[in-house]
Amino acid sequence: MTTTFPDGFLWGGATAANQLEGAYAEGGKGLSIQDVMPHGITTPPTEGPTPDNLKLEGIDFYHRYAEDIALFAEMGFSVFRFSIAWSRIFPQGDETEPNEEGLAFYDRVLDELEKHGIEPLITLSHYETPLHLAREYGGWTNRELIGFYERFARACFERYGSRVKYWLTFNEINSIVHVPFMSGGIPTPVEELSKSDLYQAIHHELVASARVTRLAHELAPGSQIGCMVIAMPTYPLSPDPRDALAAKQAEHTNYAFGDIHCRGYYPGYLLRFFRDNGIEIEITDADREDLTNTVDFVSFSYYMSVCQTADPAKQATGEGNIMGGVPNPTLEASEWGWQIDPVGLRIVLNDYWDRWQKPLFIVENGLGAKDQLVEVDGVKTVEDDYRIAYMNDHLVQVGEALKDGVNLLGYTSWGPIDLVSASTAQLSKRYGFIYVDRNDDGSGTLERFRKKSFGWYGDVIRSNGGSLV
Known about the structure:
The longest helix is centred in the middle third of the chain and has 25 residues, at about 195-220. The protein is globular. It is built from 14 helices and 14 strands. The chain is α/β, with parallel strands linked by helices. The mean pLDDT is about 95. An eight-stranded parallel β-barrel has the order 1-2-3-4-5-7-9-12, surrounded by four helices. It has a two-stranded parallel sheet with strand order 6-8.
């Protein structure tokens, strides 16, 4: 069955500055929280950068962006999602004036995208809080970060607003519930962080997101600004109504972020959660007014689904899943324990469209795997049929959701080029259509090679989904 996507559908890939740029101390850049996370979320942060942190060099996009963007153009990308490293623009995060060298770097990236006719989709904060703001201010638990972030966003809108239509405020904003240091720059260990402090930090991010949404509309007329959440459909483990309720309550943890971004106020179920858990946060009248600045679209990452149950004996969480959840016995899992559920993507698309009636954008989806570089007819490549199958099956379900009437702007696969994993800081967890010769021990030439999926994705884009099977 042939699936044809709408005219103007945006096809491309998604990245984050901290996972591919490298050059962590070049161009006047300050340290970010990622520079002290050599093993991702698997170990506590270090005092400063250490040689085992692959993110310090990344895949050297900082120096190789023109080569990489040319490869994206060869596949036919019409959109490229990347983030602006906050600490490149404001090295400490609390300066009053931006760093010109940092601004100029992203000018050059935008020049290259424009040369190839690729639309930029920019994330303002992608797990890249300046380390100074984390260590000296306590991260997003401190209300002062709202103003610092607003200043950063203003600098970006004033510099790039006429060149960029699509913006995202915070990457996977709901992940702060589970990884407060990576997502919110909060240095307090998770086991010591009170729920009140956590949700105060969340509130500050939500207010900042809403203020920046208003600012984008003022400084960059015609721009579209969206929120970005982790989408993870949660099914009841059994038909027991108590399992269905447990699944609904787990979904609320994620819905809350989209509800506030799209509706402009705190939902009743979240206020009840605060009451039931003794959570008290400061919400000013000005905050409530700010929150009414709702987003233009909703973007999300989708990698897996989970189950929930009310039975404590069955509540073992899945391997590799930072968001919790019980493994689904009907699904297979990736090498990192993420359950593979293409139909879940169709469910999410319908669910979000029905709930918020705002355009949607899939800004992350892909398969992390241990690829093997081989030589075929004298050319080095990766025979990644497993990635092709994964993405084909998910995109077929996207096509079904479009037939269901969902308004979808585009699709950017996660990691169109191999990059350093956020959760594990490995390079062996590869997502790309382009293989990068770099290993977990830091060895390798950084040379780029087209995988089999490179040609496959190019065919999908050129046929506007018509080549999917």
